[in-house]
Amino acid sequence: MTDLVDALDTRGMVSSAVRAVSFFKLLRESWVGMIGTGIIGFWVVIALLAPLIAPFDPNTPLQPFAKPLTEYVNGDGIFWLGTDHLGRDILSRVIWGSRTVLFYAPLATASAYFVGILMGLAAGYYRGRVDEFLSFLANVILSFPVLVLYILVITTIGSSGINIVIAITFASAPGIMRIVRGLVLDLRNRDYVAAAQTRGESSWYIMLVEILPNARGPLIVDTCLRLGYVVITIGVLGFLGLGLPPPAPDWGGMINEARSIALAFPHMTVIPCIAISSLVLGFNLLADGLREISLRD
Amino acid sequence: MTASTETPLLEIEGLCISYFTRAGEIPAVIDFSLTLQGGESVGLVGESGCGKSTVAMAIMQYMGRNGAISAGSIRFKGRELSALGRNELRQLRGAEVAMIYQEPMAALNPSLTIGAQLTEVPIVHEGISRSAAKTRALEMLSSVRLPDPERLLAAYPHQISGGQQQRAVIAMALLGKPSLLLLDEPTTALDVTVEASIVKLIADISREFGTALLYISHNMGLILETCERVCVMYSGEAVEIGDIEDVFRHPSHPYTQGLFGCIPLPSCDKNARPLVPIRGQLPLPHERPQGCFFGPRCDSFREGLCDQDLIPMAASERTRHLVRCVRWRDLPSERRVGKARPKTPAQIGEEVLRAEGLQKYYPVHDRSLSALIRGQAVRYVKANEALSLRAQASETVAIVGESGCGKSTFAKVLMGLETATGGELVFAGDDISSRPVKKRSQKQLGSLQIVFQNPNDTLNPSHTVGAQIGRVIRKFGVERKPGKVRDRVYDLLDTVKLPRDFYKRRPRQLSGGQKQRIGIARAFAGNPKMVVADEPISALDVSVAAAVTELLMDIQQDHGTTLLFISHDLSVVHYLADRVVVMYLGRVMERGTTAEVFAPPYHPYTEALLSAVPIADPDIQKREIVLEGIVPSALNPPKGCCFATRCPRKIGPICDEEPPPFREAAPKHVISCHIPLGEDKRFPTPC
Fold it and tell me: Which chain A residues are within 8 Å of B446, Cβ to Cβ?
């Protein structure tokens, strides 16, 4: 393991900061990417400032069935986006709900990537039996309808934030593994890999230090797309009642609760829907922008 | 040749071509003039990035979205090409001017049969019927000497060999009966013996059909064999134009002279008359110097004279000979010759490597039922068969052969990336034939290192140069402390003649030659006993290749390292090797010292290889031996001598039935052939 620390150390913190800056300079040239970054940035700020900008407590019943722009009868303030059937302020719930999504979506994606990358590296690098086994495993999981898989996992281990992460990892890692495996199968034949082998490097050093950094381009684009997809998934899980246990504010859960009265009170479902779609759109636009930049060079 | 009073076939005058990119206008070709008469063949020579392909593209009026002719004119049969509309151009392309590219596989559509692609040409251009087109295609396939044209018409491109593909492409180009044929490195992707046959075909065809040729190549030898005139280009400019004889015997521009100094001719010798690389590197198009573009690399550069205005072409007293140099009259018109190496060659020491009967088979599994019934479920590709060779300390041993002869497989077995199927491979006293890298000690690994072929693949694009070389130094325990490691990396950068600030650079900031130098530095970082160089210069330009060759040999002599040089290029091998092993289809055909192998008695395959190599020296007369047929599959090699199917000197059925004996022509000079040594009346050495 000291080898790995060694290699990572040579890159240094300074250079990665410099690279982050130059990366955003590049991104500025793609307006699609900039819009995506803007939308994501908007939601990140909202989530960070939730306690300051939310006008009401998200879980306190105040005034049921209020339409948007209704004034609060028993106190100060306006329900900008109305209230739900229990009288909770929808704006505040959307604001606090962004925290849930923006915490669990990256966490679940990161966890899925961790597992998927390790599996993909091993399958693509060792090939043979290891590949056959891992690919078979991946195919079995991928052949399941995703929703059934989620319901199965969550009902088995119970619904909680961490279990959402586990379920998403379980369902997404095989797809990531396939991408990584494909990239590794190509990269493992490069001469610099042969050079590392002929100086006696360990397999995991070669996979993590020689191969993985060169696969980063397609993986970064895929991460953005997948983040958007995970946002939808979290919404779906909330809608199915498999998300965070109530009364925690959760966009998917909000849609579910208002489902039966959606025709009479459309604002209760439409507003969380817009929230979900905009965030997904943001991630997808960012992915498009990144792809545009990567194709340019 | 047509009389020069007629309208020339092609007239290019003061052509300037620019590409418009985000960084601004980049001039690719500057003030290029060339006149081509009907039936004439002109060569366009230069290193990559000199603009020679751009000229060809401009003649086709096909320069992509961001390229444009900014000045000058191109007239074809008196018509100005840039004035033609799209429909007129479409009539012109293919029917009047045809182009042949480097990669035949990329030129042919993989999802259409050869027949469909060939017949399309006359159908589109002449509007003849399908059956008439088919007859024409058949005729044309036989005139490019393709056997069994009927079968080929129905074949898809991937079903035929690279040489056959290129012949099909040539046939396709000729079907439109063009009066001008543009050839852009048509043989660069092919093996030497195939190249020789294609070159001969091209020369025959231009004579037969009276087609004019514009032959683009980086290889001076090929130009000598195919063309009547030559135009040398450098950094977007033509620097010298003239008849082959004049340019090859009396090169007047310093760049042309320098190019000849970089080519390993048979008259060169690594100790007495080494190559003279051109220093520096090609300027980037937007960083061209004031005045003469070659100035900064030129030994005859004069300040105040060469760095002023753009230099025009000047006519010499020789007919049709133009030079773009202000000082050429003051300079001798001759090739550059190297000065003898000051160091005495290192003494050849004890044996370092010995291979004895080495075999490497790759199993091929066929799971079809018919294979199971015939008992051929597993067959073997015999990549190496009964391979024997020796290498001593400080010696350079070359393995030569065409693609698929098993030379790279041998390198892989030697490096431990593959393990041998049988035989012995003794390195520094240990048998390593069946010991993969994982089981080799750090000392064994460090003493056997490799330089790879492809400069773009040899360095990891994600890490800095310093980190990559430093890693090797630490791994092999040469130095451990960070400061010492850094000093050692600096030393190595000095050794490979690169500036020290390359330490922090990433591979994408380096040129091909620089990457290859770093690759060499990395191989020598662990003080190896032996370095395997797998085609280290074949992807590089002539002048860069010469510099890397010289560097490799300097370092080898300083370190007393054994060099195993794997190459398909006999000229380079002749230049730098002490001993040579010639391989064909996994077997050794001939081995001996360089002098022995390059002189009679030859193995017939060596002889064919030697005659196939283009040599850029008009004084050397070569006999033409064109090998027919294709290399047999290594899955199913011929039963007797594996070269028998293509051998021009086959003596009888014995060649097909019995494996040939190893005959000793001299001590340690072994030829594997049925022809008895005393009997052979082979022609005197071409090299």
Answer: 199
